[in-house]
């Protein structure tokens, strides 16, 4: 979907039609199916068709949310990066546009499930980070940031960045990086158990699962020793 919409916005506004978007999707699917990540899914023909059909439905839902011919796109899939002290931060903005007043709008496409009202502010953290990058790199704070959900319950969730929200992101990122630097210096990495642990490959070394962190240190030292030779 990201690639299809990127291709759509490469066209002049009058050519951003639904049939053109479906053609962009076909091009995007042909590109992605040749990639190793897609092939590693080992989808059978019916699963691959379901994947393509789901994406096609998302294209239809996108046009129900907005008219792309009315969008003044500044760029798509834009990489922005800046330094925050010793930390290099970067992000890729799905779409940056200008509104009717010349203000910047950050749009982030989402293909997953629409969040509950209680989760909205947490999900908006990412686009607020993009607002911070725009201010740092482009010298302009966006007038609006928005999440565009294209799943089964399509909708747009918006927020208005402020001086407080941008400075809050800057302080939060700085504090997290300072904590990481302290943890690296002290070798103090405290586990925090969560649902994500179900996908973790390091449980054998984690105290929360009865593992021994020293085993990881020994393996790391051995690997560094082999590299030195």
Describe the structure in your own words.
By secondary structure, the chain is α+β, with helices and mostly antiparallel strands. The protein folds into 3 domains: 67 residues, no CATH class; 104 residues, Lambda Exonuclease, Chain A, CATH 3.90.320; 36 residues, no CATH class. Helix content is 47%, strand content 19%. A 5-stranded mixed beta sheet has the order 1-2-3-4-5. Strand 2 and strand 3 form a beta hairpin. It is globular. The termini are far apart. The model has no long low-confidence stretch (mean pLDDT 91).
Which key phrases capture this entry?
Lambda Exonuclease, Chain A; 229 residues; globular; single chain; five-stranded mixed sheet; alpha+beta; 3 domains
Q: Brief overview, please?
A:
This protein is of the alpha+beta class.
> Helical segment tally?
8
Task: Please estimate the helix content.
Answer: 40-55%
Q: What would you report as the Rg, rounded to the nearest angstrom?
A: 22 Å
Helical/strand content category: alpha+beta
Measured distance between first and last alpha carbons: 46 Å
Q: Which CATH architecture of the largest domain would you pick?
A: Alpha-Beta Complex
